[in-house]
Write a sequence for this structure.
């Protein structure tokens, strides 16, 4: 382990330091690796970033690892004519980095956990400069046994069957998870629709009941007024005698009914304001109050009052301190 790189008599190349021991000495952690047929080593970026505490592996790679030292697993294996390795979490879109990329990523990190690598690199360079070689201490050698990371060198003809089985299992797991997510989303949507439907039903029921009650009350009031007006028409006195009698709500409404063509809205406003004009002698209520009692809009109430004024049913007499108009009965 103390020479740069050797070749055996059979032509095979041997590393001066086993790559697993090198990574363990540099990071103090076991990291999965994929060894390609040409002897190059690639490591899942997520493993390294997890050890370094990077929450965003993509940003860490973009900031510190040049593009020539990072690749996607699918592109890398395709370049060597290999299939995706079988194994837990080895996905097609997995980002992998070369050994140089691993060293650059760890060395560029400012976290305290990266200090051992920087000190170790400095120690290696200083030792090689001074002694011409470097040997790992026993504590720096990665332990073997269960749980150690697996290195893959997977020619296509060996890996194909395993990959098909593993891909099928992963696809089944993914389909099952997607099915569960879709089912949950559909259940949530159905529940939301049910809640919205119940709320609309309650709102519609309340609105219908209130509208029906108002309509029934208005019909009863208009029937009573119509009956009274019919009686007044039959018993109406001479004009001079009529002027001498103090006006009543019924006589006022009867007079108004003869003065103009009464629509439902105008009659609704007339039924509300006539008693006030007879009892108080003037109408000082704001338009909003009349609108609340009639169920009409403020604009429509104002139009109805303007129509009553145009046909000499009422006339304007100044305004209140708040600027609201004051109306009195027209004597013409």
């Amino acid at each position: 382990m103390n020479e740069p790189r050797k070749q055996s008599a059979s032509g095979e190349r041997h590393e001066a330091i086993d790559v697993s021991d090198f990574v363990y000495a540099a990071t103090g952690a076991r990291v999965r690796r994929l060894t390609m047929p040409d002897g190059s080593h690639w490591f899942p970026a997520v493993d390294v970033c997890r050890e370094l505490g990077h929450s965003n592996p993509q940003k860490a790679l973009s900031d510190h690892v040049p593009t020539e030292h990072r690749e996607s697993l699918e592109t890398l294996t395709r370049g060597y004519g290999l299939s995706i390795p079988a194994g837990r979490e080895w996905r097609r879109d997995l980002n992998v980095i070369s050994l140089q990329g691993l060293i650059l990523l760890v060395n560029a990190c400012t976290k305290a956990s990266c200090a051992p690598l920087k000190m170790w690199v400095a120690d290696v360079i200083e030792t090689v400069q001074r002694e011409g070689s470097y040997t790992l201490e026993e504590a720096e050698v990665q332990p073997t046994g269960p749980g150690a990371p697996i290195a893959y060198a997977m020619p296509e003809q060996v890996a194909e069957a395993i990959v098909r089985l593993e891909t099928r299992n992963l696809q089944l797991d993914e389909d099952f998870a997607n099915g569960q997510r879709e089912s949950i989303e559909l259940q949530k949507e159905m529940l939301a629709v049910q809640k919205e439907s119940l709320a609309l039903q309650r709102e519609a029921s309340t609105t219908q009941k209130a509208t029906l009650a108002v309509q029934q009350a208005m019909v009863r009031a208009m029937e009573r007024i119509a009956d009274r007006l019919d009686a007044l028409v039959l018993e109406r006195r001479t004009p001079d005698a009529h002027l001498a009698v103090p006006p009543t709500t019924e006589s006022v409404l009867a007079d108004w009914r003869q003065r103009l063509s009464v629509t439902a809205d105008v009659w609704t406003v007339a039924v509300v304001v006539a008693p006030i004009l007879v009892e108080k002698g003037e109408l000082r209520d704001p338009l909003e109050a009349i609108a609340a009692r009639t169920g009409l809009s403020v604009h429509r109430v104002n139009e109805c009052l303007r129509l009553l004024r145009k046909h000499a049913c009422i006339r304007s007499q100044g305004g209140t301190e708040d600027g609201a108009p004051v109306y009195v009965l027209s004597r013409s």
Remarks:
- The chain has twelve helices and nine strands.
- Residues 155-232 form one domain.
